[in-house]
Amino acid sequence: MADKKKCFELADIDPALECDAQDNMGGIVESVIFGYHDEVATWPDSPTPKEAALTLEQAGALEGDVVMANGCKACKLNFTDNTGSFSIKMQGETGGESFLMELSLVSARIRKKILGFMNAAKGRKLFFIVQDNNDVTYLMGDKRRGALLASDSDGATTGSSPTERNQVSLKFQFTTPRALAYEGDCKNILTAASV
Question: What are the Cα distances from residue 76, in Å, to 16, 34, 94?
Fold first, then answer.
């Protein structure tokens, strides 16, 4: 039985990267997976100590997959190269801390389809699966809450001169109690689930 007061087993963290992590490239992959929060049947769980305290690696990753409800599927949003970013920031007062995940991306050229996406996302809970350029994947959304289109997104702009990009700039935010990587399956959710 795990010691209830010792959830995480501390360990040395070496500033030198392991051999398989020598390459460190910023940015995110220019394609994210998204869907409606209420169309997810099963969410991955936060790690919990069972027999012993969690290792730091275990404490940093979700357990399980996102599984879509019957007849539902996730979609892909491809955006303009080198315009996306993802961050995890601390927020809250002492004793009530949480993490704010934030996804920002730009889609070049205002189009009816991207305006339609803005309309569909406004006020709706979504989930996003984001992969960084170092092959770490993140899930924005859990069984309690989803990611929301931030009201301070820049939105659609034509620019003011012919040399500026006509674009849609969007920002999504998700508050979570823990900063965790997602190691689940991403391929199966892109086709409609049938049980």
Answer: 35, 6, 38
